[in-house]
Write a structure and sequence with these properties.
The protein contains 14 helices and 10 strands. It has helices spanning 3-19, 35-45, 63-72, 78-86, 92-102, 116-128, 131-142, 179-183, 203-210, 222-226, 233-241, 264-274, 293-302, 323-336; strands spanning 28-33, 51-56, 147-150, 157-163, 173-177, 188-195, 214-217, 245-249, 282-286, 306-310.
């Protein structure tokens, strides 16, 4: 049996297992991240729980989001829009609305490359004056299977210390500013921080983390989507003190620029340096993406976590997560590693 056939068989088994789940056994889950990594988690998690909250980074400064942020002084809506689209259902209504809010205009004017969902979200922010209320209303319109919240009440600027940013000076360290720039920076990212340095967390996001059964962090751009959640003091405090169990979901491959050459265990070491008091319970990784399982297990143990290896990548070989396989892996982790109390 070829590797592709084996993964297709696992996908069929995962789908069958999920379809056989008992109704009512739903954990309260909070997923943190941004961009396509968070979308992958949400697309999987909405298959196994109806009690799902996304807490989304607000440091994006590129593309449509960056233009709206600069012109109107609003939170960048792009990652929030992507999370809402991921929570749309698989029925005709959900598929239609997911396509509509992701649609980008093509023109030679000011609307070029703006996403419909970005404009809708910002319009409701201006109408209601409350980012959380507006996002809840968009979610209701879309029939979203969960809630989407920004991690902070103010737009953040991401800054990174990068060694070797200039190839002519490989040992020099410089500060690189802006999420879009950090995500593609040459050189080696040493650490990241946000401006303002002590941003206010959205109270509803803190409450969701404290009330969760499980918190899922990652996958996603490590320095620009995953770690920023640990740089909001109130949110980090909630992650440290919550009774929820926590799973860290690793990427399938290093990201060009941001984490070039990083091993799976290096991702854990970087996270540990940014939040030394934060413990995890489980580290989830694709079994084919871990060449050194012993080193990953050692790094996970330093975070207080056990490693769970599972086939979660798309069977076609593209380094993206398969929603059904990822859902099956999360479902197994939630069941095998216990829970704090009765799932609602």
């Amino acid at each position: 049996m070829t590797g592709r056939q084996l993964r297709q068989r696992r996908l069929s088994r995962a789908t069958a297992a999920l379809s056989g789940r008992k109704r009512g056994a739903q954990p309260k889950v909070v997923a943190l991240g941004g961009g396509m990594g968070l979308s992958a988690s949400l697309t999987a998690l909405r298959r196994i729980t109806g009690d799902l909250t996304a807490v989304v980074t607000v440091a994006d400064d590129g593309g449509s989001s960056g233009r709206l942020r600069e012109e109107l002084g609003v939170l960048p809506p792009g990652d929030l829009r992507k999370a809402l689209a991921a929570l749309c259902g698989d029925d005709a209504w959900g598929r239609t609305w997911a396509q509509v809010i992701q649609h980008r205009f093509e023109s030679k004017g000011d609307l070029h490359a703006h996403a419909v969902g970005n404009l809708l979200i910002v319009a409701l922010w201006e109408q209601l004056g409350d980012p959380v209320q507006a996002l809840d209303l968009v979610g209701k319109l879309l029939g979203a299977h969960g809630r989407v919240l920004p991690m902070s009440a103010v737009p953040l600027e991401l800054q990174a210390l990068v060694r070797g940013h200039d190839p002519r000076c490989p040992e020099d360290t410089v500060t690189v500013r802006g999420q879009a720039t950090v995500a593609l920076t040459p050189g080696e990212v040493q650490s990241v921080h946000v401006v303002p340095a002590d941003p206010p967390a959205v109270p509803e996001a803190v409450a969701a983390v404290l009330d969760a059964d499980w918190v899922v962090l990652g996958p996603g751009s490590w320095f620009s989507s995953v770690i920023p959640h640990l740089l909001v003091p109130e949110l980090l405090d909630a992650l440290v003190t919550t009774k929820a169990r926590k799973v860290l979901s690793l990427n399938l491959a290093p990201q060009p620029g941001e984490t070039d050459g990083f091993s799976p265990q290096r991702h854990l070491e970087v996270l540990g340096r940014h939040a030394p008091k934060l413990a995890m319970d489980v580290v989830l990784a694709d079994e084919a993406a871990v060449p050194d399982r012993e080193s990953l297990a050692d790094a996970a143990q330093r975070l207080g976590a056990a490693v769970e290896l599972a086939p979660v990548a798309s069977p076609d070989g593209v380094p993206i997560h398969d929603p059904e396989l990822l859902a099956a892996a999360y479902d197994r982790i939630f069941r095998m590693h216990g829970r704090i109390g009765p799932w609602r």
